[in-house]
Each structure stands twice: as C-alpha cells, then as structure tokens.
Amino acid sequence: MSKGIKVPKISIIVLTLNEAGYLKKCLASVRSQSYPQEKVEIVVVDNGSKDKSVNVAKSYDARVFINKKGDVYRNWAIALHKITGDFVYMIDQDIELRGKDFFQKMLKPLICDRRIIASFTRKYVRKDQAWVTRFLSYHPAQCDPLYEFLTPPLKKSFIREMDDYTLCKFKLGLVPPFGRMFYRVEYLKKTPNWKLNKVFDHDLIIKSIKSGYNLFAYVPIAGLYHYHARSLKHLLFKRARNLRMHYLPENETTEYRWLDINDRKKIIRLLAWIIYANLFFPAFFRGLIKFFKYKDWVLLMEPVVTIATTDVILWGFIKNKMGRSILKQSLKTLVGKPERAINGAFGQ
C-alpha cells in the first residue's frame, strides 16, 4: 500500500469439511501474502470435520466456529456475522490465492473508486491440477460447457478499462457467473444481505444491485487456483449433489436464476443445447479449436465433459420431484401454456 494510506483490515472466510490437506494449502497461501498479516483475519466455520481440519485452521491463527448441523448457506451467514474487517472475501477450502500480492491487487479498484462495492478475479490453470479441473480452468469462472452456455458472458458487463482492472456494471438478468466477490463491508451492511441467516453468493450480488450498488471491478491479474474436482466422476458427483442438496431445495428462495423456464425462447435454446451435447461431434470440433489455441490435451475432452455434465443434470431433474415439476412447467411453456412462475436454478 502507498505511504500515508491507512491499511484496511481484511477478513477471509473459509468453510471447512474433511479437507485438511487442501485447507493447509489454502491458508498457507493467505498467510504467505505480503499484505500486513496483522491486518488479515481468517474466520473458519467447520461443518463437523472428522479429520484435522479444525487443528489446521487454528495453526494458521484462524478464528474457528463449529456448526455441525448447518448447511453451506447458513455457515456462510454465520461466518459473515463474525468478521471484523473492512473488506471480506469468501473462499472455498480447496482454493489457493495466486502470487504474494493478491490483496493489494484486489483492493486497488476499491480504494481508487469508492463507487465500487466489490472486486473479483478469475481462475487459472495449474499443471498439478487434475485434468478435469484443468479443463474447467480455461474458463475464467471455471464454468463447464453447460454452465457457460446458460450464463451471460463477462464482457457484456464491461464499461471501462482501467490500470490493472476493468470497471463492470452488473444488471439484473445479466449477471455473469462470478459469485466469489471481495466485498466492501460498509456497503454490504447497507443491503438486505446483512440481515440474512442464509447466504448464497450470487444472491449477494443480486441484492447489492437492487440496493443501488451495481459497480464491480474485474481484476484478472490477481487470480485463484481452485482444485475443483479430482476426476470426472468427482465433478459429476458434485453437480448431482449440488442440484439435489442446494439448487432445487433453494429454488423458490434465491433470486439468482440460471434459467427462466417461463421463457419459451430460452426453453427452445436449452433443448437445442441438449441435442448439441449428445451429438458429440460439434463439441469435439469446439474442443479441437481450443486445443490448437492453448496446446493442452485436456481440451480434447470437451465432448466428454459436455455430454456427461448435461446428462447428469438432466437425470437429476428427472429423479427429483421438484425437478420433474420444473420440467413439466418447461414443457407447458414450450407449448404455450404458462403457469405460475417456477424458476429453475442450477449450476456450480
């Protein structure tokens, strides 16, 4: 930080559950930052780990809270109300911060422009990642092909290129798939987010926009490494679990939507995607183009990842009662018989 400028306190929130090895790397990346460590607070909420996660967190001087009965959204809310920093960043236990000056890079736009409520960065590829994670990391938000197809591109939010970051204006219905934000706590407290007992990362953005805070900063030079999935099987497990445990149960309580199933054009577009995904060869040619661009063999797995993630989500809807209700409403929209709005929400 420049001389004469007050160094703000930063709070880092991490939720933990039985991933002590990843957690150690995560917290080591936080504590190895060049930012003054006395100004870095780590708050951990553990969901009842049976490994050494709690001990690891304490060894990095984290404030640890245990809530065995909480789901991920309740635990985010618990952690958010325990922080004491001027800025807060919520990360997963299997994430590492890139470089040694991550905080300075993320803070720069927030200090330079007080209109900005939050900054965000992108995921990067690392050689030691499992092939499926490496594949996903070529997308800045680590989207799989289906998730990328359903969400607005980041560039639609760009309004001005600045030194080391891009100023973005988010609009309702056009929020790009970046949920992990480095928030200015002062502004976050002025939104309905602060009163919630369940926190969903994309809903924090929606409620901020509705409260008049629609300026964000994209800081790609900062960067994260996210060890998202160990294998394709693990990725599909996480997609099916998230659909079953998070997105369908929270369907009518969250405001962020991946798909409006009362919009006929979007239903037709999604059906076209399902056909595209299962034809194999169109996705293969897309992967081939990406392979020649980045020279990484994992990109040739595009058709496999495309088919697998699309069909596991589709099967998840078919098996679930609420999912079948959403599919039924989609069919009625398709034939021109709309009913009460039921919005499908699914993704990472």
TrEMBL record:
GO terms for molecular function: transferase activity. InterPro entries: Glyco_trans_2-like, Nucleotide-diphossugar_trans. Residues 11-134 form the Glycosyltransferase 2-like domain. The chain crosses the membrane at residues 267-285, 297-318. Keywords: Membrane, Transferase, Transmembrane, Transmembrane helix. The keyword Transmembrane helix applies. This is Glycosyl transferase.
